[in-house]
Amino acid sequence: MNIKETFVDTSQLGLAYWLGKVHQGDCIELMDQIPEKSVDLIVTSPPYNIKNSTGNGLKNGSGGKWPQAELIKGYANYNDAMPHEEYVAWQRHCLSAMMRVLREDGAIFYNHKWRVQGGLLQDRADIVGEFPVRQIIIWQRNGGINFNPGYFLPTYEVIYLIAKPKFKLAPKANAQGDVWRIPQESNNPHPAPFPVELAQRCIESTTAKVVLDPFLGSGTTAVAAELSRRKWIGIDISEEYCDFARERIADVSGKIR
After folding, report:
1. pTM recorded for the entire structure
2. Domains of the chain
3. Half-sphere exposure of 90 toward its Cβ, with a 13 Å CA cutoff?
4. What is the pLDDT along the chain (257 residues), one digit of tens a residue?
5. How far apart are the C-alpha atoms of 147 and 116, rounded to whole Å?
6. Who is most buried in 58, 135, 212, 231, counting CB within 10 A?
């Protein structure tokens, strides 16, 4: 895909233009061009703003207790260190853009991480509070090392199920519990990869035909959609990640067809 295409007004081209492609560009600008109420499901995990920290982990990009941490340098094209209020406003804007493209029976699986900042829990209510959160799913994953004696080792992240009024799960999917034990992704050059199994469980818990990820990263949601035989749209601002995602998706799609 020619990068310049992402800056062309595609709002009149219809949904078919977007399907099965990794689009490079700002996710809000591109979502604003996707037809309204045309997407069934959004599965995404945005940057966590982890380098804006009061702790001694990745504070000020030094690494602190984590000199080898993958996220010390941030992401490609994004350093993951916004002032908190600016980050919250950005994520609200992103969610508003997602809600616009979502059908009335659609939903967003929005993965985020609760953190302790300044000695207090930062539970992301300031981001999702104005949106229709129907349920919280706990992604239980492996823990690392906790150097802070003030709280227990974190071993989970949160998936907010943000649902439009007519959203329903696929038949029998409601029998699943709301705690999902899934290990982290490994052998992935992206600094914070989203596990394929987790994205696939989100997708296969619904009857969605079209799945969008506006923070596609290494392409995990698109890979999961391919494995689940669903159509997909991917967006990421990084040319590097887009190129890697395309290679990864092509490899998977070639094996299952």
Report:
1. 0.86
2. 3-256 (3.40.50.150)
3. 15
4. 344 444 455 656 799 999 999 999 999 999 999 999 999 999 999 999 987 777 655 444 444 433 444 444 444 555 668 999 999 999 999 999 999 999 999 999 999 999 888 889 999 999 999 999 999 999 999 877 788 888 899 899 999 999 999 999 999 999 999 999 999 876 666 556 689 999 999 999 999 999 999 999 999 999 999 999 999 999 999 999 999 999 999 999 877 76
5. 13
6. 212
